[in-house]
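Can't paste images in this forum, so I'm doing it all in text. The chain is below; anyone willing to post the predicted structure tokens underneath?
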Amino acid sequence: MELATPTMSKRRDAYYWRLLATALSFALFGLSGLCLRLVILPLLSCLPGDAERQRLRARQTISRLSWLFIRFMARTGVLTYEVIGAEKLGRPGQMIIANHPSLIDVVFLIGLVRHTNCVVKQSLWQNPFTRGPVRAAEYISNNGSIDMLDAAAGALQDGQTLIVFPEGTRTTPGAAPAFHRGAAAIALRGARIITPVVIKVSPTTLTKAEPWYRIPRRRVHFSFHVGADIDPQSFAALGPTPRASRKLNDYLHHYFIKELASDERSNPRPAA
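Text version of the structure:
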């Protein structure tokens, strides 16, 4: 399945309009986070169901609102997007591994997968706009501890879908992604299947240490390409866990470097 936004007119591609629309988008994101924390999630917690059902409701609600947020940014001309292979996402025990070029690529992926779990950075647990949703959804804090690895592997063993960014932080513009071995270790311990998602952003935006108001001169295009599944057990058979983890991490690292360096013509922008 391929999802794409239509090409918009040059009038909607105007710099100052996009700057205003970007500001509105960030304001909407913050207000949505507060509304989730103070109103929507407390109301959902009053509905019948056990803890697992409550968690699923929270994740589905966050996913739907995330996708509405992406559609708002697309409709207002902030960005365009293309998703190839979305139907392969959201399977039980699936570990979705993606590079991390921009602040909002995680919002895209959570919006695409209605019931997913996600390893998120520790600071989101203290942020007043995000701490309510991430706690209600029981996302996993990327605090670098052994408990984090256990929780992530356990989620996969329970049949959850899990999104992981092996870089741990956003990619430095102009540099190749650097993968930490923790993602590979999680996959070997719990994943039934690994599915890579290669994310390209042109021109770059919302990179590390870049303020929201520093928008590019032209509209941003996000491209998500869901790759072929990878069987973690084929790497588990290579030897002891540390060796298997290193081999899997190297394979994923080289895979993403190769895909990100591929000719842009292999991943075209939507036609007018």
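Residues 3 and 124 are 29 Å apart (CA to CA). The chain is about 40% helix and 15% strand.
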